[in-house]
Write a structure and sequence with these properties.
The complex is a heterotrimer.
Chain A (H helix, E strand, L loop, with lengths): L1 H26 L7 H17 L5 H23 L4 H21 L1 H4 L5 E2 L5 E2 L2 E2 L3 H24 L1 H18 L4 H27 L1 E2 L6 H14 L4 H21 L3 H22 L11
Antiparallel strand pairs in A: 1-4, 2-3
Chain B lengths: L1 E12 L2 E12 L3 E5 L6 H8 L7 E6 L2 E3 L12 E3 L12 H6 L7 H5 L4 H15 L14 H13 L5 E5 L7 H16 L3 E5 L3 H7 L2 E6 L2 E6 L1 H6 L1 H8 L2
Parallel strand pairs in B: 3-8, 3-9, 6-7, 7-8
Antiparallel strand pairs in B: 1-2, 1-4, 4-5, 9-10
Chain C lengths: L1 H31 L6 H18 L4 H29 L4 H23 L15 E4 L2 E4 H23 L1 H11 L1 H6 L4 H26 L6 H16 L4 H21 L5 H15 L8
Antiparallel strand pairs in C: 1-2
Helix pairs in contact in C: 1-5, 1-6, 1-8, 1-9, 1-10, 2-3, 2-4, 2-8, 2-9, 3-4, 3-8, 5-6, 5-8, 6-8, 9-10, 9-11, 10-11
The chains are: A mainly alpha, B alpha/beta, C mainly alpha.
């Protein structure tokens, strides 16, 4: 039972990460391979604020979200003006640099050792030390992200994003400063990713740089390609499938190393197969 | 009143001068036709004025301001709008949404918290009814026929309430009923005082609709005047038929 | 003074490897017109193939290298045939091809890790007996000399082939305008297939060289490719020789940086270079 609760929490956090990436990739058409970096920034921010500075959890997560947002704003302002391919490369490069910083700036991040002992959230005096209480928090978080995402996509801003993803030049001709829209979406989505990372760090109570490599970003991308671009429900479905199915591999009895690589390979397979045969994913509203 | 003019406007691609030191003037309340054989630079000209392609030389004069280069996201502010030769609509979006796109607030937070949906809906409905597409308002644009797409493009342009409209071959491939709708629309815009610039190959339509005409060949203006006058000139006939 | 010579020698070897990547990548990019993010993984696959033949099966080194490059070339060719060609036929957008290539990268990486473990491996058989040469106060290993020789000869052959053979002319025609090329009767599909094979071979050589020089990891693919892309952007995209110059310049900056800061920051330095050029001089040092 505890195991199921654990899985539910993991699925929820990945679903939140996927819904936020969907805002960037699915709704706006920007292929971003930097999401893991923002999840990591959120995670490390909270880890340091809680273990070193001992600030209350609510403050820590707000600061983490703010930091993610500020970094995203500057990264976005730098790269979003560039042509697609260079923008993608820029996001990969950014992810690598952030990983390097997590790994090598040992005085701050304790490098490859990571930071342990991150406490569970304490909200209004109650500490969420049981998994089930954390699950409630995680589900509330997923709902918030879902509503945030829907609000954006159903608004006139969402319509503008859809125009940008299909034909940015036309959107410009009709009066849209597309860079501002892309920047808004990138910053907001990255803040949500930072929040997800903050929650994850608090849940697992330990954070290490290796979880934030480009491979993680590719994983989240595979989730939304599977679930379908332009669909928050699709993101949730994709997260559920790509977290739960590989867990089943464990029971098949592969050695953990092989199982991990099989998982990785399956993400790649998802990307290739869906691009070839079903670009709109399972529940997608946009055919890329 | 001159709404927009160009002074020695030049654009080259590689070694080829697609637009070669072109001087044009577009008056409000008039239809100005741009004619010329294929490759004479008409679409490139529109692309430079609407910021799709950067200008290499010369300037664009709007009112009292002159521009060496103009960004496409700025042209709406200066009262410029256009249609495209191969209609560029947002395919994976409904017909109605394609129009709402050009009606709603343009700035990020205004668009996020848009409060005037009903008003915009009324305007979109009126435009769709005028071109006969109201029944198709919830259709995905990719499901429209060629002619319907051209009509939607025109409707979209009219909603921009521009001072100058560039129509790039709006009549190409349309059935007579649709041609009538487009002519009427052009007439209405003209009556409202806007400048209409029409790129067109059909000479009968040019004679019928245009007040003034520029003939382009190889990026240069080789003749200008009323359609009657211009289409009789020797050099114009030669440009089309070859020497 | 010795440090300067050593840095110089390291730069030349690293630069030669990056130059190979840049050239091969540019070849596929200019004909197929999309950024193949899996290119680096093909290089790594070549390196691991040699690992298999040379260290596991105890083959002769030249036979191993021959087989390794052949396998890399075949891999490049197959990926193009199975994944990219169907997508190109259906006029898939750049975004789709990009995502598909990301998928291919992930699959190749996972398969390599499953077959050879994700531990660091080197191709050198007997680390105790590396032949070294003294050059002007610095040392260079025998394998590094061979790498240099191989890289230079490949670059020369490629340059000559592109200039003087019919195949080379076909490649340049397609790179210029593939519609016109097909009108003139050039079989784009066949040429592109060959281009991906040759590109794969070049990548394989680069991967093998890396395996002898600094060692192999399954995850090296993306980083290696990105070095090549950075070199391309620094040198000026579209300018083949600029790319080669960019490769050596990048190697120099990396080695200087590694000497000043520390080896772990090498990747981060490369990306800072990329970002700097993308922002301030996207057309590169030697624009077309």
């Amino acid at each position: 039972m505890e195991y199921l609760i654990h899985i539910a929490i993991i699925v929820s956090l990945y679903a939140a990460g996927a819904m936020s990436l969907n805002l960037i990739v699915g709704e706006t058409g920007l292929v971003s391979v930097a999401h893991a970096a923002f999840v990591g920034i959120g995670g490390y921010a909270v880890a340091l604020l809680l273990t070193v500075a001992h600030v209350p959890f609510v403050v820590a997560i707000l600061v983490a979200v703010l930091i993610s947002g500020i970094v995203a704003f500057f990264i976005g302002a730098t790269f979003l003006r560039l042509r697609e391919v260079y923008y993608v490369l820029g996001t990969v490069g950014f992810n690598v640099i952030v990983l390097s910083i997590f790994l090598n700036w040992s005085s701050l991040t304790k490098g490859p050792l990571g930071i342990a002992g991150i406490p569970r959230p304490e909200i209004f005096g109650a500490q969420l030390s049981t998994n089930i209480s954390f699950l409630v928090l995680a589900l509330i978080f997923v709902l918030c992200v879902y509503f945030c995402s829907s609000f954006i996509t159903r608004s006139s801003l969402g319509r503008a994003l859809h125009a940008i993803r299909e034909d940015e030049a036309v959107a410009e001709v009709f009066g849209y400063s597309t860079v501002h829209y892309k920047l808004f979406v990138f910053t907001t989505a990255s803040m949500l990713a930072g929040a997800a990372g903050a929650l994850y760090a608090s849940y697992i109570s330990y954070i290490s740089p290796y979880g934030y490599a480009v491979t993680e970003s590719i994983f989240v991308l595979a989730i939304i390609i599977l679930g379908g671009l332009g669909s928050a429900r699709g993101a949730i479905l994709g997260a559920a499938l790509l977290v739960i199915l590989p867990e089943l591999l464990r029971f098949v009895g592969f050695p953990p190393e092989i199982a991990a690589q099989l998982r990785l390979g399956s993400y790649g397979l998802v990307l290739v197969l869906f691009m070839l045969y079903r670009p709109q994913g399972i529940w997608g509203t946009f055919k890329i | 009143m001159t709404i927009l003019k160009t002074r020695k406007l030049t654009k080259s691609f590689g070694g080829v001068r697609a637009v070669d030191h072109v001087d044009l003037s577009f008056e409000g309340g008039k239809v100005t036709a741009l004619v010329g054989p294929n490759g004479s630079g008409k679409t490139t000209l529109i692309n430079t004025i609407t910021g799709i392609v950067p200008v290499d030389g010369g300037e664009i004069v709007i009112g009292s301001e002159s521009f060496r280069c103009i960004r496409s996201s700025d042209i709406a502010t200066y009262g410029i709008t256009r249609t495209f030769q191969n209609s560029r609509l947002i395919q994976q979006m409904s017909v109605l949404d394609n129009l709402l796109l050009v009606l709603t607030k343009r700035n990020v937070f205004g668009a996020l918290f848009e409060r005037h949906e009903a008003h915009h809906l009324d305007k979109a409905e009126a435009a769709l009814r005028r071109v006969g597409l109201w029944e198709k308002r919830n259709e995905q644009t990719e499901n429209l026929s060629y002619g319907q797409r051209k009509l939607l493009e025109i409707a979209r342009a009219t909603l921009m309430r521009a001072d100058i409209y560039f129509f790039d071959e709006p009549f190409a491939g349309l059935f007579p009923e649709m041609v009538k709708i487009v002519s009427m629309t052009l007439g209405e815009l003209r009556a409202g005082g806007a400048a209409i610039v029409l790129v067109e190959h059909d000479m009968a339509l040019v004679r019928e609709l245009a007040d003034h005409c520029y003939v382009l060949d190889s990026g240069k203006v080789i003749a200008e005047g009323t359609p009657e006058h211009v289409l009789k000139q020797e050099n114009v006939v030669e440009a089309y038929l070859g020497k | 003074m010795d440090i300067a010579v050593q840095i110089g020698l390291n730069t030349i070897v690293a630069g030669a490897i990056y130059a190979l990547i840049t050239l091969g990548f540019n070849l596929t990019y200019s004909t197929a017109r999309f950024f193949d993010l899996s290119y680096g993984a093909i290089a790594v696959a070549g390196g691991y193939a040699v690992l298999y033949f040379y260290k596991y099966l105890d083959f002769n080194i030249w036979a191993s290298i021959f087989l390794g490059t052949l396998i890399a070339g075949a891999l490049g060719f197959s990926v193009e045939r199975v994944v990219y060609r169907p997508l190109r036929k259906r006029k898939a957008t750049l975004t789709v091809l990009l995502i598909a290539s990301l998928g291919v990268l992930t699959i190749i990486q996972a398969v390599i890790a499953m077959l050879f473990s994700s531990q660091f491996q080197t191709l050198v058989r007997d680390t105790g007996a590396i032949a070294t040469l003294s050059v002007a106060g610095g040392t260079i290993t025998l394998s590094q000399v061979i790498i240099l020789g191989a890289a230079l000869s490949i670059m020369l052959c490629l340059g000559l082939a592109l200039r003087f053979t019919n195949f080379g002319k076909a490649v340049r025609a397609i790179a210029d305008d593939d519609e016109v090329a097909s009108v003139v009767g050039i079989n784009s599909d066949r040429v592109i297939g060959t281009v991906f094979f040759l590109g794969g071979v070049m990548a394989g050589v680069a991967g093998i060289a890396t395996g002898f020089d600094t060692g192999l990891l399954p995850t090296l693919g993306l980083a290696l490719l990105l070095k090549g892309v950075i070199a391309l952007i620094v040198g000026g995209i579209g300018n083949v020789y600029g790319g080669v110059a960019g490769a050596f310049l990048l190697a120099l900056i990396e080695n200087l940086g590694a000497w000043q800061f520390s080896g772990e920051w090498r990747d981060a330095i490369a990306f800072v270079v990329l970002i700097t050029f993308l922002i301030f001089r996207p057309q590169g040092i030697f624009p077309r």
